[in-house]
Write a structure and sequence with these properties.
disordered C terminus, three-stranded antiparallel β-sheet, alpha+beta, globular
Length: 199
């Protein structure tokens, strides 16, 4: 792994642990639990944890005191947006997280329960927003609106990312929890999203 990639992963993990995790625990979609980082445990327990990260897309587990756990995918970026981003194409042609999650849904395989995204201002280093959504809801929404959403994608180095604004999911009735440093908390407690087209 390249040094700049290692540094980015380390920065993201620190932001999640120190700044974003305390906010995430306010969300009823997550609740209070013990945070377990998959990448830390793959060094101890080997390939099983490595596969959970690289193949299944689970970055963290939440262990609950009453028993049970919940896995989630995490992304932290230096920008001023409020959106979920999903890698949909790689220059190398290798499978992306989008393709892997689609396959996991279709085949009933292990995958994250939730997806989270935190945005940090690249100038002031201020945490701007945090979003939480059901991983299957996010992937299904992208699948059903792929042609429209990927018109708004962004290129980052050797990959392309679809950009799905938090507000778009909210408008389409998808269960989403949003923390914004200016407007506070918004929560759409919808149990059966309709995946409406509003793009």
């Amino acid at each position: 792994m390249k040094q700049n990639v290692k540094e980015k992963i380390s920065w993201s993990a620190q932001q999640l642990r120190d700044r974003i995790w305390p906010i995430l625990q306010m969300s009823p979609m997550i609740d209070v639990g013990r945070l377990v980082r998959v990448e830390e445990h793959d060094k101890l327990y080997g390939t099983h944890f490595t596969d959970l990260d690289r193949e299944d897309g689970i970055d963290y587990f939440i262990r609950y005191e009453q028993g049970g756990s919940k896995g989630f995918a995490s992304r932290v970026t230096k920008d001023t947006f409020s959106e979920f981003t999903i890698r949909v194409q790689k220059e190398s042609g290798c499978d992306t997280e989008f393709q892997k999650r689609c396959r996991s849904i279709d085949q009933g395989l292990t995958r994250p329960v939730l997806a989270t995204h935190g945005h940090v201002d690249p100038v002031s280093n201020r945490l701007l927003s945090v979003g939480v959504v059901g991983s299957d809801d996010l992937i299904t929404f992208l699948r059903q609106n792929f042609d429209r959403i990927t018109k708004k994608w962004t290129n980052i180095r050797d990959a392309r990312f679809a950009k799905i604004p938090y507000t778009l999911l909210k408008e389409c009735g998808i269960k989403v929890w949003i923390w914004d440093c200016n407007t506070g908390i918004y929560y759409t407690p919808v149990d059966n999203p309709q995946y409406k087209e509003k793009i």
